Every structure is written in C-alpha cells, then in structure tokens.
C-alpha cells in the first residue's frame, strides 16, 4: 500500500458525539477525541507514606470494573488548561489528593491503529489529602492506596479476581522509580 495516499486522503467524519467522533480516512476507520488537543493525562502518584494511588471504576465499553491510575482529559473542563493543571485537577477529583507539582514525563499514542488520542504520563509530587475523591457526579470511583512495595502483587491479584487492568499501569509503576532513559529516579 502507498502510505502517502492514505495520509493525503481527507478525513470524513461518519459520527460525532460529545466526547468522540468516528473518522474514515482512505480505507482506515478510527476515533478522535472531540476536545481540543485530543489528549488525556495519566497521573503517577505516590502518597507521602509511600502508597501508590489507583482508581477502580466500571467501564461501559468493557462491561467490567477496571483498575487504572487516575486519569482524565486535558482541557475538557477549562479551555487552555495545561497538562499539569489538568492532571492535578483530575487527581483531586478522582482521589481526593492534590499535588504541589506535576511533571510531564512523556506523551504518546494510546492505540495508534484505532485512535488519534494521545496520553501524557504525569508524575505528581508533594501530595496532600484534601477530600474523599470518588469522581464527579457522573462517576463512581473507588480509590485504592496500595503500598508501593506491594503494588505489582496487588494488581496481579486484582487480575485474578476478574478486574480489567489498564496495561498502562505497568508503565506507570516503572515510572515511579525510573527516568525515561532507564536510570533510577532520585527521591
């Protein structure tokens, strides 16, 4: 197949909803986020007592409960909001924890064959508990604070119990202790 012909075909929107649209470009079908930038943030957060923050919620597309790191769309609530601002806002909303700092670690595609969406891994630091979490009025989120040393084993148990696990969890766990070049992160 000639790659340039696929790239040059104009996209055709076949459906548009509140958060996503379906697009056909040449012979390829994919989804796009409807908010500007099409970006989501995944927050890698460890509490002062060395507990990793995970969220649990029912996800309609999977018809199952999932375990994820806190996450949300960038700029969907406040236009022009930075990745870091969105990450802290989502962390507060979903978990009840806030952060003094947020550092973007990397940005990349979530599923490059099915969606144009990109995610930003964001490391939150200087955490402080400010509320109960649980999400907004449309969400039913349970917060799990898991000792970092036991996080991988806890996730494996959740998988055995039938939960769906976001594969990005494993990248997030690695990013707690490492820089992108593979070197150990200084505390």
From TrEMBL:
Its cofactor is Mg(2+). It catalyses: GDP-alpha-D-mannose + H2O = alpha-D-mannose 1-phosphate + GMP + 2 H(+). CDD domains: NUDIX_ADPRase_Nudt5_UGPPase_Nudt14. Belongs to the Nudix hydrolase family. NudK subfamily. This is GDP-mannose pyrophosphatase. GO terms for biological process: nucleoside phosphate metabolic process; ribose phosphate metabolic process. It comes from the Bacteria. Keywords: Hydrolase. Gene3D superfamilies: Nucleoside Triphosphate Pyrophosphohydrolase. GO terms for molecular function: hydrolase activity. InterPro entries: NUDIX_hydrolase-like_dom_sf, NUDIX_hydrolase_dom. Residues 36-169 form the Nudix hydrolase domain.
